[in-house]
Specification:
It contains ten helices and 18 strands. It has 330 residues and is an alpha/beta fold.
């Protein structure tokens, strides 16, 4: 019996840093977006190149394992050198691999940094999008929680079937969708969300999924889809949360951001870890914020995920301010 099994992608992340990028804001009548720009037709020197393992499935598995939970990872990796690197990393972190190695290239991401410490990710979806439900050994998937991160194509259909299996088996489901799933809308995600206990997403994703920019509307629309607990993260502003019919706002600390990749994964997994430990909203929010902020202060999505001892120390020395709110006034 596992405490949690994470289901999601496994990637090799390549961080490319150059001094030649610029941040450009483009406004339309309805939106404003920032773009990272590079000189056209130029050959640019990369100042720093860093390689890490990434992907929502393995990032969150490492977070749970370091916090002391018996953890399994379910996903697909390629029969290539990058797949071997990922499997060795899981073994090092004492995470059981419950997935498949297949004849496709392992997922690969190129992260382009900008002067604002934000980033654009070029993501190749290979093996991770080909997780076949029919080939899973369900007898090995005994756990208290499934944690789902974003998957596409055949693997998304597997998530839907796993969520139905979880409901039949009385396994709780946490789900952290990405923008490319959220933009598909409520109808596309309906089956999965109807079996979801905890939903974590950022304000942009919540807006795309509910077609609203108002927080009270976002929460009301998301509640209708099934989740009883919902967290909406808002970058350096903080997090809004619905837990046991109460609404909360957790204020973010000012931290020196080095890189933002994986911060959402570390918050969502650590919030769930805190809830599993104490069933207390304040404790869960503080645990989520502590690991996310540690992540932001370092390069790589896994490099500074905290152990339970480390996270409790950070929570006690750098206390997150949390208050109950009336969501109708937000």
């Amino acid at each position: 019996m596992y405490d949690v099994i994470t289901v999601g992608s496994a990637t090799i992340d390549v961080f490319a840093y150059t001094d030649k990028s610029e941040l450009i804001s483009v406004k339309s009548k309805t939106t404003e977006e920032d773009f990272i720009a590079y000189p056209s037709g130029s050959k640019l020197l990369i100042k720093t190149l860093k390689f890490y393992t990434g992907g929502g499935g393995t990032n969150t598995a490492v977070a749970f394992a370091r916090l002391g939970f018996k953890t399994g990872y379910l996903g697909a990796v390629g029969k290539d050198e990058n797949g071997k690197i990922i499997l060795n990393n899981l073994k090092k972190e004492k995470i059981d691999f419950l997935g498949a190695t297949i004849d496709y290239s392992t997922d690969y991401s190129i992260i382009l940094d900008s002067i604002a410490h934000d980033r654009t990710i070029l993501n190749y979806k290979g093996a991770s999008s080909r997780l076949d439900f029919k080939k899973l050994n369900l007898k090995k998937l005994k756990c208290k929680w499934f944690y789902f991160s974003s998957l596409v194509d055949d693997s998304y259909k597997t998530l839907e079937k796993l969520s139905a299996y979880a409901k039949r088996s009385k396994i709780k489901v946490a789900f952290n969708p990405s923008s490319y799933l959220a933009v598909k809308g409520k109808r596309f995600l309906k089956k999965l969300l109807s079996n979801t206990c905890l939903l974590v997403l950022n304000d942009e994703e919540a807006g795309k999924l509910t077609c609203s920019s108002k927080f009270h509307t976002m929460f009301h629309e998301l509640k209708k889809l099934g989740p009883k607990m919902i967290c909406i993260t808002c970058g350096n502003k903080g997090v809004y949360a619905l837990v046991e019919n109460n609404y909360y706002f957790a204020e973010a600390h000012k931290v020196r951001v080095k890189e933002a990749t994986g911060a959402g994964d570390s918050f969502a997994s650590s919030f769930l870890a805190g809830w599993m430990l104490k069933k207390d909203a304040h404790f869960a929010l503080r645990m989520g914020m502590a690991n996310a902020e540690s992540n932001l202060e370092h390069y790589g999505a896994k490099e500074k995920l905290l152990t339970r001892k480390e996270i409790l120390k950070r929570m006690n020395t750098n206390i997150t301010k949390i208050k109950k709110i009336d969501i109708e006034k937000i």
